[in-house]
Amino acid sequence: MLRPPLRARRERGETEVKKRRQTQEDSGKTGIFPIMAESNDMEQLLAAFKKFAIHGDTKATGKELNGKNWAKLCKDCKIIDGKNVTGTDVDIVFSKVKQKMSRVITYEEFQRALEELAPKRFKGQSKQEALQSIFRLVEGREPTNVGVTKQIPHVPPRHATPPGLQAADGPFSWSATSASDEDFWRCIFSGQQRDLLNIQVC
Questions:
Q1: Which CATH code fits 35-138?
Q2: Cα 121-106-76 angle, rounded to 5 deg
């Protein structure tokens, strides 16, 4: 049996390669490959889910997310923007994706909830682009603890020598470098306390 010329075999091989490449590109465009696979780091999305799932509950396993923490996730991750997505929208989606008698959602239901909110949060983007955008809001995030740390002014130890005071053979002597310095120490130590501590304000 005669084999076709080398040039013909080479051209036929190139044609087959082009066909395979075209098939792969068409598959990606038509959604044969899952949209979820397009996320750069789905592990970060899962990590964020687990961190919010155990927030405020020492007995939580990290496998289920309750409604309170779901709402916190949407707020902390800026899914709720007060314009396109509100707290009411978040509650409605939670009720939609969870099981009928359940009060929590699984990771898979959590992903469906994000898919529901994505087009609403990112209007003008395609469904796939909006989903990736909302994933990026959540990936790698963790609950924020809202609160103001109260700053307590530093008060020198009882037997410490305050700034501006110099130990002498007798009582401490101190010359105020400014009126505010003098006022400060007069406020902290009363006349009786200054006598007890043997402090003199010059």
A1: 1.10.238.10
A2: 40
